[in-house]
Structure formats: C-alpha cells, structure tokens
Write a structure and sequence with these properties.
heterodimer, A: alpha+beta, Rossmann fold, OB fold (Dihydrolipoamide Acetyltransferase, E2P), 5-stranded antiparallel beta sheet, 26% helix, B: mainly alpha, MetI-like fold, 2 domains, two-stranded antiparallel ribbon, 13 helices
Chain lengths: 357, 295
C-alpha cells in the first residue's frame, strides 16, 4: 500500500507540452479519479505513474521511493486498460497467472491467488476460456483479476468502463467501488465521464490542459467548484451560466433583461466590481407562483426523465435548463416563473472564470 | 399500382441471378475446371508415339508406385520443401522483427531488404549461377579469401539441395518477412504495455506474447510458401535442370521431363495430379493448424 506524490511533473512530446507543471498528493488507500475532457492529459498522467511514459522533468514518488527511472514492472503497480489488453492467445487463468509466473512464484501459490481473485470477481467459470469467448463485462473482470492477483501497491484504471454498455457500466462501476473498499489499496481511475468520477471517487482531480483545476471530494467539487470550467464539467445537465452586471438592485443580463437579486448575491456581485457570470445548476431552480419574485421564462422543450423533468428555456437569449418535479407536467410554450435557490447560486469572474467569494 | 407492376417476383429474381452469373460460371469452367478434368482424363490414358491413345485406368498410377524415380523425386521435393520453408520462416521472421523495430530505417533501405522476391526467377537463377560457379564464381572466391575450401555448390550432389534452398530463401524470405511484418503491425500495442507492467523481459515478451500472436500469420505464410515450394520448378530448371545426375530432380521437374522430353503425357499427368494431391493435403493440414492457433 502506498501514497503517490507527483511533484512539479512536466511532460512534453517534442514541442508539445501536455503537462506543464503538475503537483499532486494522493494519500494511501485513497480512490482518486482523474476526470477531464479528451486531451486534458489525464491518461498521460496515469501512464506516467505506471511507468509507460517517461517524465520530462519533475519527480514521482510511489510510497517513499522515487520512481522516475524505475521500469513499470518494478513499481509494484497494476493497470487495467481501456481495451483490457488481455493476452488474446492465453486462457483467462494464464492471463491472470502470467505476471506471477514471471516473478518466479510457485505453482500452488499462483493457483491459490488466481482462484481467490476469480472467486472475488465471480469469474471461476471462465478460467479455461480465451478472452474472445467472453463478453465485454467478463473481459473487464478478467482484466481486474489480472491486476488483483499481483497484490499491487497501486491500482491504475485507464477508462476501463468506456467500452461497456450503459447498464453494464453502472454495474461494473459499483463492483469496482466495492472492490476498492475490500482491497483497501490506493486506486487511480481515469475517466471522461463525470458520473463515474462522482460516484466512485474519494477525491476527484479535474484536469484541463494538463493543469489541475480542482482536487477535492466529489461533494466539494459539485457544491463548491473552483472555477467555471469545473462547474460546467461536473454535473449533468451542465450548470447554466448567465453573464450579468449589477445595476441598482437588479442583475442585468447582456441583452438588458433584468432579474431580481437577493441581498447576499448582490453583495458578492458588488464586490466583484459589479459584473460576473452567475452559475445555477438545473436542479437549483424552483418553480414559483406567478407574481412571486421568480424570473418569467417560456418553455422551449420538455424532456421527461421519469424521476424528474428537464425544461429548456432562455433567459436573456442564453439557453438554460431546469430540473423540475414531473408532477408539474410542464408543456412547451407554457410560461413559468423560476427562482434560483439563493444559497446555491455560484458567481464567477467573467475574465478568469475563477469562483468569486 | 405502378410499384406492384414492377415488383420483382422470386422467379424473375432467380432468372436474373442465373443470367448474371452465367458468364462468370462459364469462364471459370473453361479456365479452371476444364484443364483439371482434362488432366484427370489424360492420367487414365497412355499415348503412343504415333499419337494414338488407349485407356489404361489406374495403370499410370500403379506404374508410379513402382517407379524409383518418382520416390526419389518425392524425397527431393520434400527435402527441398522442409529445408527452404524452415530457412524462409526463420529468416523472414527475423527480418520482419528487424524492419518492425528499426522504424527509422529509410524507405529505400526497407525496399532494398524486400526487393529480391520482385526479381524474375530467371534473372535470380542466372545471377546465382554465376555467383556459385565453382571456377569463376564470387562465392568460392570469398570462401578462399576466408581460408575455407571451395565448394562445388550446384554441381555437388550433396550440396545441390541446400544450395537451391539457399537461393530460394534469398528470394522468398523477404516475401515471408513482408507478411509477418503485416502481422506484427496489427498486434495490439496495449498487450505489450500489459506485458511490460507484468514484468516480461524482451525475450519472454517475444516467446510468450509475440510469437504465439504471430502464429496465425506465420501459418498463412507457410501455406503460401508451401504451395510454391512443393511445386519447385523455375530456379532448378534454370540452375541445375534436376542435376547433377538426378540429385535435384523434384517431382515437378521429373513430371515436366516425362511429359515434354519423353512425351509420356498420360504418365506425366498422373505425376502432376499426385503432386497436386500432396499440395492440397499439405494446405488442408496447415489450414487446420491455422484454426488451432487462431486467437
């Protein structure tokens, strides 16, 4: 078991800098998820930890050991790949036993470890099959089994659920989470899916352009996003953003429309030189009766999801979405009054995107 | 209504299918089936020097069983086949690995490596005939410069088979390399990263991962080369014509001589059909093997 310390790591491919200067501390036994859009450097960072990519500069520690030049095999890590990377010509048993054989482990010990991992992952029945005879979910489990038998200090997962269908993804997600609680090992998981990040992680690293945008618990990342990028990336549907200016007691949108502001937000906006970007998550709108202090909007589209209903509308020509109670039975063209929950409104700097206090 | 009138009935569809495929079927019958059937027919007949034919049934085949020259030809064919195939697979795999890993090798050098199989066999045969000439050839000159005794090469009954195998390997190992290189390039890179993390050395990676994954490709190359090698003709015809004596007299060369030098067309047809059966048998066996090593 081991902590991971990434200190001022830089990664360049020729003239292209993928990771400019990144530092990160991952505690022992922690389940950390790297999340971000394609090309944000999350997989590169994982491959750096695995030893599959050399570091241009900086230091990487696994436990107390600096592992910059240490080959992947000697880092005591195990990795589950996006395409599983199972040895296609070997039976499931041999796939799982291969690393142990290379370590010179005795046959009975290999057998015990393989069968123990197979039992944990419910793949005992497939041990004699080849990967091509397994479904995507079963291959996924074999890939995890191959990692588990090695009893590594750190587990690395490179988007391992992206090839599974939605139902299976949810199931395997829960299995990995439960596995992490049983194995009590440091785990680093890469995904571009913010739901995976939110549901599995002890801590989330939100990356963009090789820079850590926020490193915190899923709750904190959701409730208190560090900047507009994080706020927009985490949460589905995404947070609504409205550029506003403070004029008197009301917020004025770009096209001149106005909306009432509560005292606290007015004070925050005032301290930000009177302008900023207001962020409201779809679930933080309330439908209020007409005549109340809500913003009048016309429904453009209705998406019933069963448990909730999403309504699409515009505020001052800015498209927005609200999540409402399905019992309201909203209809396209209907006029409703929406009020953002005062304590859930985020305010960002219009120029830097940083959260404003 | 217009749609119903123009609707294609199953009968009409069948008639169209027959009409459209008939030229291709007729062409295939004319170009492939007819020569094969005619050869089979020839194999059941004997022809006199005046051109009269007589049905001999399996007579040509029973003659073949008792013919020492046939058994010698079969032995030469198989010896040349095994030796050439092993050499070509080993060298071809090595060359493919070299080309695969030497990614910075200029395109011209890569093309040079694989160019011999593009050379016409007549040119290759004549070139090697000169190189291996016991008195004026470069091969013996090099041996002597190295302090080694000269060899008779193609003129030696002992060395003729290894020498012909070497010439054929020089020409066709690059072809095998090209096929195996294609196989190497299609192997999943993440499997190698997994092996790297598992702690496999370069040798273990080759033996436990690359080689088993390449087996289907190697078997494909084996099948392609088997068909050619079992029908070994051109290089031998140019360099030794089956000699010295009958030391390199393969079944194909023997059949050719029986047919076109001794004009025993019926017996030559029986010989060639037997060789065809051997080629078929080998191809079928390797095809099964390909299924067994598929992953």
């Amino acid at each position: 078991m081991a902590a991971i310390s990434i200190r001022n790591v830089v990664k360049r491919y020729g003239n292209l800098t993928v990771v400019p200067d990144l530092s990160l501390e991952i505690a022992d036994h922690e389940f950390v998820v790297f999340v971000g859009p394609s090309g944000c450097g999350k997989s590169t960072l994982l491959r750096i930890i695995a030893g599959l990519e050399p570091i241009t500069s900086g230091d990487l520690f696994i436990g107390d050991k600096r592992v910059n030049g240490v080959p992947a095999a000697q880092r005591d890590i195990a990795m589950v790949f996006q395409d599983y990377a199972l040895y296609p010509h070997m039976r499931v048993y041999d796939n799982m036993a291969f690393a142990l054989e290379l370590r010179g482990m005795s046959r009975p010990e290999i057998d015990a470890r393989v069968r123990q991992a197979a039992a944990l992952l419910h793949i005992e029945a497939y041990l004699d099959r080849k990967p091509k005879e397994l479904s995507g979910g079963q291959r996924q489990r074999v890939a995890m089994g191959r990692a588990i038998v090695r009893n590594p200090k750190v587990f690395l997962f490179d988007e391992p659920l992206s090839n599974l269908d939605a139902k299976l993804r949810a199931q395997v997600r829960a299995e990995i989470k439960s596995l992490s609680q049983q194995l009590k090992t440091t785990m680093v998981f890469v995904t571009h899916d913010q739901i995976e990040a939110m549901t599995m992680a002890d801590k989330i690293v939100v990356l963009q352009g090789g820079i850590v945008q926020q490193y915190d618990t899923p709750e904190a990342v959701y409730e208190r996003p560090a900047n507009q990028f994080v706020a927009g990336f985490i949460g589905s549907p995404t947070m609504n953003f409205f550029p506003v200016e403070l004029r008197g007691e009301v917020a004025t949108f770009l096209n001149g429309a106005t909306a009432p502001l509560d005292a606290a937000l007015r004070a925050r906006l005032k301290s930000a030189a009177g302008s900023g970007v207001v962020g409201v998550r779809p679930e933080h709108f309330e439908v209020v009766p007409s005549g109340a202090s809500g913003i009048a909007v016309q429904i453009k589209l209705v998406e019933p999801l069963g448990s909730d209903t999403l309504i699409h509308f515009e505020i001052a020509a800015t498209p927005a979405i609200a999540r409402v109670d399905p019992s309201l039975k909203p209809k396209v063209g209907e006029r409703v009054f929406l009020l953002p929950k005062a304590d859930k409104i985020h305010l960002f700097d219009a120029a830097t995107g940083r959260i404003l206090p | 209504m217009a749609y119903a009138a123009n609707a294609v009935t199953p009968d009409r569809q069948r008639a169209e299918l027959v009409a459209l495929s008939a030229p291709a079927v007729a062409f295939t019958l004319a170009m492939i089936a007819f020569p094969v059937v005619y050869t089979v027919w020839l194999g059941f007949h004997a022809f006199s020097s005046t051109g009269t034919q007589s049905f001999v049934g399996l007579g040509n085949y029973s003659k073949l069983v008792a013919d020492n020259e046939f058994w010698h030809g079969l032995w030469v064919t198989l010896a040349l086949y095994v030796l050439s195939l092993v050499l070509q697979l080993l060298l071809g795999t090595w060359l493919a690995l070299l080309l695969f890993h030497a990614k910075r090798l200029p395109g011209v050098v890569r093309s040079l490596f694989i160019s011999p199989f593009m050379m016409p066999p007549v040119v290759a045969g004549l070139m090697w005939l000169v190189i291996l000439d016991p008195s004026i050839g470069a091969a013996n000159y090099i041996l002597q410069r190295m302090g080694l005794p000269p060899s008779d090469w193609l003129a030696s009954p002992i060395w003729v088979i290894p020498t012909v195998a070497m010439i054929d390997t020089w020409q066709w190992a690059p072809y095998v390399a090209l096929i195996i290189l294609g196989g190497l390039q299609s192997l999943p890179p993440s499997v190698y990263e997994a092996a790297q993390i598992d702690g496999a050395s370069a040798f273990k990676t080759f033996r436990r991962i690359t080689l088993p994954l390449l087996l289907p490709t190697i078997v494909t190359a084996t099948i392609l080369r088997s068909v050619d090698l079992l029908r070994f003709f051109d290089i031998i015809y140019i360099t030794t014509q089956g000699g010295p004596g009958n030391a390199s007299n393969t079944l194909n060369i023997y059949g050719f001589r029986v047919g076109f030098e001794f004009f025993n067309i019926g017996y030559a047809s029986a010989l060639m059909l037997t060789l065809t059966a051997i080629v078929f048998g080998v191809v079928l066996a390797f095809n099964r093997l390909r299924g067994a090593v598929a992953w």
